[in-house]
Amino acid sequence: MALLIVDIGTSGTKAVLFSENGNIIALSYQDYPLIYPKPGWVEIDAETIWEAFRKTVCEVANKHQKEIKALCISCMGNSIVPVRKDGKAIRNSIMAFDTRNIEEVDMIRHAIGEKAYFQIRGGQSGPWIGESKILWLKRNEPETFSQTWKFMTFADFIQTRLGFPAVIDYSTAATSLPYDIKKLEYSEPLMREFGLNRQMFSEPVPSGIVLGEIGLEVRTELCLPKGVKVVSGGHDAPCGLLGAGVTKATPEVLADISGTFESVGCIRAKPDLTQQAFNAGVASRCNITRGTYVLMASSPTSGSIIRWFRDEFAHEERMTAEEEKANAYNIMFAPLKFDGGTVMVIPYFSGKAGDPYAKGAFMGLTLSTSRQQMLQGIVEGVTYEMKALAGQLEAISEVPIEVIRSFGGPTKSSKWLQLKADISGKKVEALHVEEASALGAAILAGVATGVYDSYEQAIKATVKIKVTYQPRPEIRQIYEHHYAIYKQLVEALKPLNKRLYYI
Fold first, then answer.
1. How far is the C-alpha of 223 from the C-alpha of 252, rounded, in Å?
2. pLDDT at 410
3. Strand pairing partners for 230?
4. Fewest C-beta atoms under 10 Å: which of 187, 208, 291, 310?
5. In sequence order, what are the residues at sequence separation of 6 or more whose Cβ sits closer than 8 angstroms to the Cβ of residue 343?
6. Quick one: the chain helix, strand, coil %, rounded to 5?
7. pTM given for the model
8. Where does residue 257 rank: exposed (0-12), middle (13-18), buried (19+ CB within 10 A)?
9. Which of 348, 290, 259, 347 is nearest to 76 (CA)?
10. 397 in Cβ contact with 380 (< 8 Å)
């Protein structure tokens, strides 16, 4: 008996088959190209996502048909797909870190008020929010807007392609759409202000409920056997927290989610909508387990900047990886020594939460600066940002944070995990299963279909710590000094970035 999870991310889609004890039986991955029509614009063809879903599911299911009991989706948020009633996308999806919609963000802030918006949505507005992208379409592509049946995320887009009604789980709706996190329904004030209505969005449902079984035609296309139950999944961040064993019962543990975005989060019994949380840039989101909330601070640039460096500067490493059938990132990281670099990088290549004008910067370059030193500066900059995010959450936490449980891209690099411990000053734990978001969705599917009696039992059976990293005092001292410079640079560049935007 096994649980098939599809984790839809910004850079690629994974189909992961888990055993009952949380071990990975099979995994298939398909990456896809992003489209950059103009500077700051980032899109993807929704059919590319469906094809990656179909290909990865088929590759796993072909070899393990008889074992599969349920299918569930973990999905990125805030990427908006305008969909016709026949289930086809009208245009490319606008991705979460697309920044074409800064004027629309300002409209939302002025019309609703930033603090009133925070009370409804649980977080501050910014170019990553889905409703600002919908508003951009309304203002700039009225024909697309008028033809749209539903504005979807990839989660409900895929589920409708599987033959189910248009439904979206609370956690994804709360992250991506004009949704009231306390009322668990679409916000009438937000919709009314911008000429939207609830018929434009999928029906919200809890995570972890059985939607049904896939019909013969689609089931055949996906190489799935009869009887596989489809379970409503969740946004990848709360799925990742569940898959890392971070719950309301572990208030001292902070999850660090490193993917295209960098997010840190913890679970609490209620949202934090205080002025302190607002000032700290901490968002409250609906969790995938009922009656709890995810408190989260995020940066829109993490793995994406590493990928940018790989694509633009690491041609030699990419060729070596192809020849040796190796991982290009492992080859890139091999020569790096994280003991305090000479290059400082501000990693806001996709902006910064709370500052729509933020841009990336390299500081300290000389004619002797190597590509490796630039990459080290990038990784250190991303990790400084993780430290800042963790500090924001800890500042409003009722319990001091003692442990950072890290998952995502950096878990494949022991060097980066040690760097996280050195820069944060916290104990860092790496999970036995690197695909925490997929494991969290597997726990959802397992509880929904009776594989596990409860979430507590499922976590006990599946979540294991692989290795723990302690801060090295002498290295931590060096990075504390560098972090102070990093913060000064961030503040110094703020007015200059705003001036650059209006050139």
1. 43
2. 55
3. 71, 212
4. 291
5. 362, 363, 364, 365, 369, 373, 374, 376, 377
6. 45, 25, 35
7. 0.87
8. buried
9. 259
10. no
* Residue type at 64 in one-letter notation: H
User: 10 Å Cβ neighbour count for 399?
Assistant: 12
Q: Please name the residues in contact with 456: beta carbons below 8 A apart, sequence gap of 6 or more.
A: none
Q: Dihedral of CA 457/459/461/465: which sign?
A: negative
Kindly give the parts of the chain with pLDDT less than 70.
Answer: 409-411, 503
- Specify the pLDDT at position 259: 75
Q: Which helix (H) or strand (E) holds 265?
A: strand 262-268
Q: Which pair of tokens denotes residue 490?
A: 């961030």
Sequence-separated (6 or more) residues with CB below 8 Å from residue 36? 42, 43
**C-alpha–C-alpha distance, residues 2 and 13, integer Å:** 19
The string of DSSP letters for 141-205 reads -HHHHHH-SEEE-HHHHHHHHTT--SEEEHHHHHHHSSEETTTTEE-HHHHHHTT--GGGSPEEE
Buried-exposed string 405-432: b where 16+ CB fall within 10 A, e elsewhere: bbbbbbbebeebbbbbbbbbebbbbbbe
Under a CB-based contact definition with an 8 Å cutoff, are residues 347 and 360 in contact?
yes
Phi-psi region of 223 (alpha: psi -120 to 50; beta: other; left: phi over 0): left
Q: 3-state DSSP call for residue 12?
A: strand
Tell me how far apart the alpha carbons of residues 81 and 151 are, in angstroms, rounded to a whole number: 6
Cβ(284)–Cβ(295) below 8 Å: yes
Dist CA 406 CA 356 (whole Å): 27
Question: Do residues 180 and 145 lie in contact, with contact meaning Cβ atoms separated by under 8 Å?
Answer: no
Per DSSP, 224 falls in state P
Residue 46 burial by Cβ neighbours in a 10 Å radius (0-12, 13-18, 19+): buried
Token couple for 116: 């009133």
Nearest CA among 165, 75, 78 for reference residue 123: 78
pLDDT number for residue 411? 58
With H, G, I as helix, E, B as strand and everything else as coil, classify residue 253: strand
Q: Give the closest residue to 410 by CA, choosing from 222, 290, 186, 259.
A: 259
- Residue 170: predicted pLDDT: 96
Helix (H) or strand (E) holding 406: strand 403-408
> Helices (H), strands (E): how many in the chain?
19, 23
**Rounded Cα gap, residues 46 and 49, in angstroms:** 5
